[in-house]
């Protein structure tokens, strides 16, 4: 590949912003060409303004950028190919109500600061053994409320993939809610998450409307791998298969990252969303407060485990709290338990997935000898982890 000619054309094609311009992924036929172009891209960004928004994605050996309709990159079709980027929307969650902290505590019957889901999975029972200390969780979502009193001690550096010049502030609420379930630390005045000493790394790929490009999700996975995080929480899903997303997930898996994703909220009985459908991912369905599969939860043979997902109470924007229902909320509980497991013992993604499936087996019913996923339980999960 003529790297200089390619980057000059990319500068021209990516530098013209028009209403009809669209985001694309540029895949290279040769890995060597990708790294050669990446090296030159970094050097030329200050000279060629059109390259300023081109993002290298090491995890899939591709570039992400916006191209105008008359792009001439097709001249290099023998050495690269273009893939039109697509949008992903957060699965619809049912918002129940938002309450200030004091109202929730006054209405509490017994546990006060421990949400029902955290209690139901038995997390408080094992906090004397593990609180997820120093386990790093990447939450690819809408960002985080940095000022929330229950999260300020749980947050480490993150990234805003929509605007890399600013912090990943949450302008939607979903990401803050997920982070609260995983690792809130408000033991005396707010709520406590499943793994209160885990570290949240917010990765903002979704905008205020809960929409993201697949390329930004891939960039988020890439960032988590580059920064050597332990767990990647992906509380979202898409109906259509995307080979580049699968490649990113597979490469993260082979780099030792535990990926947890939600099955979706369409109530389908034999199919789950991507990326939860990929075999390298821990796929999570939702339970009601009565321990039954939630009517809205997708289910099927790809599900690995079920966790609390109905009326889950967690952190919200402006230091507030919110109840939401969805498989997104269930996924956060599972990521928290995995943090508890990893804090006790280093385990591979496959070992984690196998341990979770085994501990759910002891709670599940068999029908015709066929294994069915069961309920998440922190104590059982910790016991299985120690047996690995």
Features:
alpha/beta, 16 strands, single chain, 4-stranded antiparallel β-sheet, Rossmann fold, 388 residues, Alpha-Beta Plaits, 7-stranded parallel β-sheet
Polypeptide structure, described:
The chain is an alpha/beta fold. It has 2 domains: 3-85, Alpha-Beta Plaits (2-Layer Sandwich), CATH 3.30.70; 94-387, Rossmann fold. It contains 10 helices and 16 strands. The protein has helices spanning 3-15, 31-44, 101-107, 116-120, 174-183, 214-226, 243-254, 327-344, 349-361, 378-387, and strands at residues 22-28, 55-57, 62-67, 80-84, 87-89, 94-99, 136-141, 159-160, 199-204, 211-213, 231-234, 258-262, 281-287, 305-308, 312-315, 321-325. It has a 7-stranded parallel β-sheet, sandwiched between helices. A 4-stranded antiparallel β-sheet has the order 2-3-1-4. A 3-stranded antiparallel β-sheet has the order 6-16-15. α1 (3-15) packs across α2 (31-44). The longest helix has 18 residues, at 327-344. The chain is elongated. The chain starts with a helix and ends with a helix. Mean pLDDT is 89; it is low at 102-112.
């Amino acid at each position: 590949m003529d790297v200089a000619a390619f980057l000059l054309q990319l500068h021209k094609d990516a530098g013209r912003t028009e209403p009809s311009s669209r985001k694309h992924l540029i895949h290279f036929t040769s890995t060597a060409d990708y790294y050669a172009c990446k090296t030159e891209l970094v050097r030329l960004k200050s000279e060629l303004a059109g390259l300023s928004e081109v993002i290298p994605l090491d995890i899939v050996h591709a570039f992400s950028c916006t191209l105008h309709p008359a792009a001439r990159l097709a001249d290099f079709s023998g050495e690269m190919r273009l893939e039109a980027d697509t949008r992903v929307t957060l699965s619809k969650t049912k918002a129940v109500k938002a309450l200030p902290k004091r109202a929730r505590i006054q209405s509490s019957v017994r546990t006060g600061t421990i949400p029902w889901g955290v209690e139901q999975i038995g997390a408080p029972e094992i906090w004397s053994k593990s609180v997820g200390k120093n386990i790093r969780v990447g939450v690819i979502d809408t960002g985080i409320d940095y000022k929330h009193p229950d999260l300020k001690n749980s947050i480490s550096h993150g990234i805003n993939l929509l605007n890399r010049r600013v912090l990943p502030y949450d302008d939607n609420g979903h990401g803050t809610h997920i982070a609260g379930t995983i690792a809130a630390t408000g033991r005396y005045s707010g709520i406590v998450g499943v793994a209160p000493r885990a570290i949240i790394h917010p990765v903002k790929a979704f905008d205020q409307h809960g929409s993201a490009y697949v390329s930004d999700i891939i960039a988020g996975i890439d960032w988590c791998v580059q920064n050597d995080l332990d767990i990647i929480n992906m509380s979202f899903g898409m109906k259509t298969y995307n080979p580049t997303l699968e490649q990113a997930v597979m490469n993260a898996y082979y780099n030792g990252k535990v990926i947890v994703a939600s099955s979706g909220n369409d109530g389908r009985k034999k199919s789950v969303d991507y990326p939860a459908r990929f075999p390298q991912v821990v796929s999570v369905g939702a339970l009601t407060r009565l321990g039954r599969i939630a009517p809205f939860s997708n289910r099927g043979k790809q599900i690995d485990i079920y966790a609390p997902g109905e009326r889950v109470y967690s952190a919200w924007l402006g230091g507030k709290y919110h109840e939401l229902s969805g498989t997104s909320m269930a996924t956060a509980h599972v990521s928290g338990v995995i943090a508890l497991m990893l804090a006790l013992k280093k385990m591979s993604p496959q070992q984690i997935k196998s341990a979770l499936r085994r501990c759910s087996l002891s709670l599940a019913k068999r029908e015709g000898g066929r294994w069915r996923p069961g309920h998440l339980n922190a104590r059982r999960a910790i016991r299985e982890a120690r047996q690995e």
